[in-house]
Amino acid sequence: MAALMNVTGKASSWMTPELEDLRDAVRRFVDSEIVPNQERWRKQQHVDRALWHKGGEMGILCADIPEQYGGSGGTFAHQSVVFEELGYAGDMAFGIHVHAIVAHYILNQGTEAQKQTYLPRLANGDMIAAIAMSEPGAGSDLKGIRTTAVRGPDGYQVNGSKTFISNGYLADLIAVVVKTDPQAGAKGVSLLLLETKDNPGFRVGRILEKVGQKGQDTCELFFDNAHVPFENVLGGVEGQGFAQLMTELPYERTILGVSGVAAIERALQLTVEHTRERKAFGQTLMDMQNTRFVLAEIKTEATIARIFIDRCIEDTIAGDMDTVRASMAKYWISDLQCKVIDQCVQLFGGYGYMLEYPIAQMYVDARVQRIYGGANEIMKEIIARSL
Ligand SMILES: Cc1cc2nc3c(=O)[nH]c(=O)nc-3n(C[C@H](O)[C@H](O)[C@H](O)COP(=O)(O)OP(=O)(O)OC[C@H]3O[C@@H](n4cnc5c(N)ncnc54)[C@H](O)[C@@H]3O)c2cc1C
Q1: Does any ligand 1 atom lie closer than 6 A to the CB of residue 133?
Q2: Model's pTM, two decimal places?
Q3: Rg of the chain's alpha carbons, rounded to an integer?
Q4: Which of 185, 219, 239 is where one domain is finished?
């Protein structure tokens, strides 16, 4: 396949020569360390721990975390280059997105001691991060969570369970959403930074068998008097959890948009290449007007999505991204991603249904984009409130 690029044929507005160099380096890293391992990771249901250390050495785990905390000192542009390159390679196993999200919670919401303790270890890959919000009984409606944290003699005792947690099997540090005051509604919710090592009250359940993204360790987690020191309540004050989630979720949703656009661009390119080569009825598929019209529509939509997400990236760099636009990016791009990939599968015919063809893998990997990070219906609720 030809080298993948921005669908507009021009560099994104936020790209610079330095970022082009980073893109080249990340692409080489992805080609050598990630692409050849996909099948093995799908079988074992998680990536190798060594990948995290290699990512740390490359400086891509916390690309937009300041150097004073061990990060690479870049901006969201640097992190976006990493996410785009993973998207262009079709990787859905490396949970670096969730890792970066947790680093941002700590950077923006944590105490100085929390930043100094955890960010360097997240940046160098010594620690892998996860965020545990969802529970068997509460996903979209997070107010319904039941996991509690009670103050014990030497720290919080956490009890309850979480499900669908990305990086759950490998995680060393989990930002766990708990009720520190079950009577106080939203004001009784806190985020605790739980270390999994030497924590007998913490247990990882199954790595869940998913439709796609099989190389990603999505897990059940169980807490039975799991220990969290008092100083590990995020931000140092109880009851801030909901406000912290509301502040940080736009970052997560923008990331989903960035990955989604890269996937759309990849799907288009794969399908253009296939339809130019595949022959039927004495002509290539691309010679048929239906194929050209479908791909023309996809290119138009991909271009609109690219221009929109580039603006979102610019605004995130400037610290000016709002919840409503992040919700638009998450819902609209993930819907488009699923629609476009489905149309591409159709143009591949039977080959589009064979997992040895990347477009088929993209089809099964994409579906969850409309569900996690907040279901798209929830995104529309958020957008509707701004009308
Ligand atoms: C692969 C994968 C990875 C995940 N990773 C993580 C993770 O790392 N950490 C984490 O905490 N969670 C994670 N999740 C959980 C994910 O965020 C939730 O699945 C999602 O928020 C939806 O919650 P739910 O599954 O409980 O669905 P429910 O809340 O039961 O909702 C089901 C459906 O009902 C509809 N719906 C719900 N509420 C409304 C409403 N108000 N208005 C209209 N329609 C509505 C929507 O269509 C929604 O999809 C992951 C999930 C998956 C599948």
Answers
A1: yes
A2: 0.97
A3: 21
A4: 239
